[in-house]
């Protein structure tokens, strides 16, 4: 497992711990879903509901795979074990990626504009300069947009334990 993947997962755990109690629980995913859907300017109720459902499935997958003692909480160590095992988590990551990208494309043209991308990523908790570096790494077009498929693939790569030197690494590195 690559160090870069561990760094990425550690960052996401910290961001998903939305209530700041040091572990993941259902409340974190409800809070995160509410923050992200609130930032989805122009998105319809269907896309918002899909995102909320993806957050719910994310939690349910973690709980089913990792919560052996049934306490309703996931630690960082437990989280790393699950999300860095693609065979256990790939479907959940795909659903999440597609739902998030759909929020970023409210007009359905297949392109995500920088302002909405930035708003959604800030709602998750990523830092502005890192978000800009990520968007730039995705290779925006002349109208400062990226393809929905590019963002979906970028999210999937972010969770891949064997990937390094990917655009998502900009989210965990210091931006100069």
UniProtKB/TrEMBL annotation:
This is Calcium-binding protein. SUPFAM superfamilies: EF-hand. Gene3D superfamilies: EF-hand. InterPro entries: EF-hand-dom_pair, EF_Hand_1_Ca_BS, EF_hand_dom. The lineage of its organism: Bacteria, Bacillati, Actinomycetota, Actinomycetes, Kitasatosporales. Residues 4-39, 54-89 form the EF-hand domain. It comes from the Bacteria. Pfam families: EF-hand_5. Signal peptide: none annotated. One of its GO terms (molecular function) is calcium ion binding.
